[in-house]
Amino acid sequence: MQSLIYKVFTRKYSLSLQADALELLSTVIAQNELSTVDATKWLELLADTWTKREAGPLVEAGPLKDLVAAVSAGTSSVSSRGADSAPDVFTVISAFDVPPLWYDPSTKTFTHPFTKAEILSSAEAKASLFRQRYDLIKQRVLRNENFTPVMFSDHNRFRTLSTIDSLQGREGERFLLLGMLAQLEEGKLFLEDRAGSIELDVTNVGKRAHGLFTESSFVLVDGCVEDGVFRVDEIGLPPPETRDVTRNAFPNTNLFGGSPSLRTEVQLREIEVATDNGMVILSDVWLDQPSTMRALRVLFDGFSHSAPPIAFIFIGDFSSRPFVAGSGDTTQYRDNMTALGQLISEFPDISRSSHFVFVPGANDPWGSGALPKPRIAEYFTKRLESRLSHVTFTTNPCRIKYCAHEIVVFREDLLKRIRRNCVLEPEEGTDVAKHLVRTIIDQGHLCPLPQRIRPVYWAYDHAMRVYPVPDVLVLADRFDAYSVNYEKCHCVNPGEFSSGEFSFFMYYPVSRTSQYSKIPKS
């Protein structure tokens, strides 16, 4: 068995075992009388979990013993206490808990840029914010098949990126540039990269890819230099990258956040199949409106006659008007939350089994107006929390891990903001929702707007990333409900629940599909 242990830990995962650690693994395998096939699966689970925890290349007996115990407990938790209650099956990740990993182009790895990310961060974080976005997109572009020639292939079929400083003295030649759109002078559009900036002329753009182009968004432009101005013939967003390609490029880097599951992907998929009751996604649930409470009662009553959903994802605003601190809104808001808790508790199967996630909107307390927005204060929510078994009040945006699924939730009137700040109008007759989804995923960022339009805390810009591309992206917006599939990502906007037709989406993880539903008005 020792040769099998070496094969898995050393050859496959590049881990070095101390003698007592090797003896520990041999003893456990012998005591449990594991076959070669079962032992291999168990050893791979151990090695993979050790690597994901970034415990280092040297495996010592003490930490390994704790890991063996944790894995044994984790793999048996489905039968002993139920899959839904296991902590590694459904996890909500606050934006402030997302790993602060920044890409280093010199080492081609992710590093920790700050000792500790803070809301009041240093000027270094501001200076590095857009450079980090540029580096992250550039490494993705260079890995794209159109930019990576294969040995013995025709290199003329592949494109080469140039930098702005290389354009000097080369007027009339064609170049392909990657950079950020900016208005450095009033009424003039520029392209910036790490090497410099150049004015753009987009009046004669012949070909424009799908997407919405705003200041601070990153684009690929093709054209030539004339009289110190770059005449753009074609413009497009950076090519996207599927999550499988990203995971293969950075196999041991946890960019999403949350602790790694103690189960294998096969085990997690089995849990998904066994508990595929769907997730309910609602946005703009105005608890101060009696009609909303009546509609929610109908909703919960409908689900009480079948298996409870996996989760209810409630997205703000939770009030029809902006919250004003120091007024009567404080008591009213808390009472509205309490009333919701009382309503849910009337359906015991749902209140005990389903997970409840609450994501704040712009009208909810508190926050300074910058992103990410903190969770709703416990003062308003503790009565509701006391009535439910599984409830999480989290940030905007937030992330959810369900089995092998990665979900990103963001509440923002994004389409209106981006359309208002477009420097190039989208083509007529196209689906604007598809433009938006493509823009967000191709940019790899939830809010690709200038800081003056939509400020983001400098040290937490990494929490706004959409990289790797998640399985599900919820863009809750005051726009018509839609669902769009792009680059193996299922994107939904549930629309407005309270001011519309009491509409919501049901998402089913196994089939990776969603269903638009609405509650009939009484």
List descriptors:
31% helix; 6-stranded mixed sheet; 24 strands; alpha/beta; 522 residues
Characterization of this structure:
- The protein has 522 residues and is an alpha/beta fold.
- It contains 14 helices and 24 strands.
- It has helices at 2-12, 19-31, 36-52, 61-75, 77-81, 123-142, 243-249, 265-274, 290-303, 329-345, 348-353, 378-385, 414-420, 432-443; strands spanning 16-17, 58-59, 90-94, 102-104, 109-111, 174-185, 188-193, 196-201, 207-208, 213-214, 218-226, 229-236, 279-283, 311-315, 355-359, 391-393, 398-402, 405-411, 422-424, 472-476, 482-486, 489-493, 503-508, 513-518.
- The strands form six sheets. A six-stranded mixed beta sheet has the order 3-17-18-20-22-21, with helices on one face. A six-stranded mixed beta sheet has the order 16-15-14-13-23-24.
- A hairpin with a 2-residue loop joins strand 21 and strand 22 (489-493).
- Helix 1 (2-12) packs parallel to helix 3 (36-52), helix 2 (19-31) packs parallel to helix 4 and helix 10 packs parallel to helix 12 (378-385).
- The chain is globular, with a radius of gyration of 25 Å.
- It starts with a helix and ends with a strand.
Task: Set out the fold topology.
Layout: H1 2-12, E1 16-17, H2 19-31, H3 36-52, E2 58-59, H4 61-75, H5 77-81, E3 90-94, E4 102-104, E5 109-111, H6 123-142, E6 174-185, E7 188-193, E8 196-201, E9 207-208, E10 213-214, E11 218-226, E12 229-236, H7 243-249, H8 265-274, E13 279-283, H9 290-303, E14 311-315, H10 329-345, H11 348-353, E15 355-359, H12 378-385, E16 391-393, E17 398-402, E18 405-411, H13 414-420, E19 422-424, H14 432-443, E20 472-476, E21 482-486, E22 489-493, E23 503-508, E24 513-518
Parallel strand pairs: 1-2, 8-12, 9-12, 13-14, 14-15, 15-16, 18-20, 20-22
Antiparallel strand pairs: 3-17, 4-5, 6-7, 6-11, 7-8, 10-19, 11-12, 13-23, 17-18, 21-22, 23-24
Helix pairs in contact: 1-3, 2-4, 3-4, 10-12
